[in-house]
Write a structure and sequence with these properties.
- The structure is a single chain.
- 77% of the residues lie in helices and 0% in strands.
- The chain is mainly α.
- It has one domain (3-144): Four Helix Bundle (Hemerythrin (Met), subunit A).
- Helix 4 runs antiparallel to helix 5.
- The longest helix is centred in the middle third of the chain and has 28 residues, at 68-95.
- It is elongated and about 50 Å long.
């Protein structure tokens, strides 16, 4: 990746709102997991494992930063879903089976669309937003891109 593009992405992450950062994390996880499928299918196992680990790291961070006091039942459900996804990705790694990864991508894509719609509605309305989910800081994500 060129220095200019890397600088742009870093700047974008540093200036993003919490909601936009959450969307960037979902997009990043999906991108890494899609890349891992391509690498697995082309026999580049070392690259596949690195991309898979990056996707796993993002999902684990999303799970670890949930705020159960503010998020209530939604946070509990997301915690369980993230745990399920992490288990499926572990199975994908053990069995070298891209279908497990595709399943996780489908779940992440569904969540991503839901978050995008929620952010759109919140930005278009004057009612107060739902309590924000705790999201990881960009400092902890530097090694993932």
């Amino acid at each position: 990746m060129s220095y200019g593009l890397r600088s742009y992405k870093t700047s974008r992450a540093h200036t993003a709102s919490r909601e936009d950062l959450l969307i960037l994390l979902y997009e990043g996880a999906i991108r890494f997991l899609e890349r891992s499928i391509d690498e697995l299918q082309s026999g580049r196992l070392s690259d596949h494992k690195m991309s898979l680990r990056r996707g796993i790291a993002i999902i684990a961070e999303l799970q670890n930063t949930l705020n159960f006091e503010k998020g209530g039942e939604l946070a509990i459900q997301l915690f369980d879903l993230y745990g399920y996804m992490l288990d499926r990705l572990t199975q994908a790694n053990l069995r070298k089976d891209a279908e497990y990864i595709r399943e996780v991508i489908r779940h992440l894509s569904t969540l991503l669309e839901g978050w995008r719609e929620a952010v759109r509605q919140v930005k278009n309305e004057t009612i107060p937003a739902l309590p924000p989910l705790e999201v990881p800081t960009t400092r902890r994500l530097e090694g993932l891109a």
